[in-house]
Amino acid sequence: MNKDIATLLGGFLTALLFFLSTVGIAFEWFNEESINAFVVLVSAAIALTVNLYAVWKNTYTGWFKKKK
């Protein structure tokens, strides 16, 4: 699911790039390479968030249960 969200975001940004270029608006920094790099960054951020939550949940909720 996380990879699907990043893929959809990349598809949206690519469609936005093509739309803006059709209208005649262009930015040097907004190209396919920057979109791909952003998608990789979003994928890594989602994976990091999920893993941090899993570590937190396993560390602290298990500790409270053992203490009681």
Descriptive keywords:
single chain; 0% strand; transmembrane helix; mainly alpha; 68 residues; PTS mannose transporter subunit IID; membrane; rod-shaped; transmembrane
Structure description:
85% of the residues lie in helices and 0% in strands. The chain is mainly alpha-helical and 68 residues long. It has one domain (2-67). Helix 1 packs antiparallel against helix 2 (32-67). The two termini are 36 Å apart. The model has no long low-confidence stretch (mean pLDDT 87).
Order of helices and strands: HH
Low-confidence spans: none
Largest sheet: none
Tally the helices: what do you get?
A: 2
Radius of gyration, CA atoms, in whole angstroms: 19 Å
Average the pLDDT over all residues and give the rounded result: 87
Estimate nothing, just give the exact number of structural domains. Answer: 1
Cα(first) to Cα(last) distance is 36 Å
In short:
The chain has two helices and no strands. It has 68 residues and is an all-alpha fold.
Task: Outline the secondary-structure elements.
Layout: H1 2-23, H2 32-67
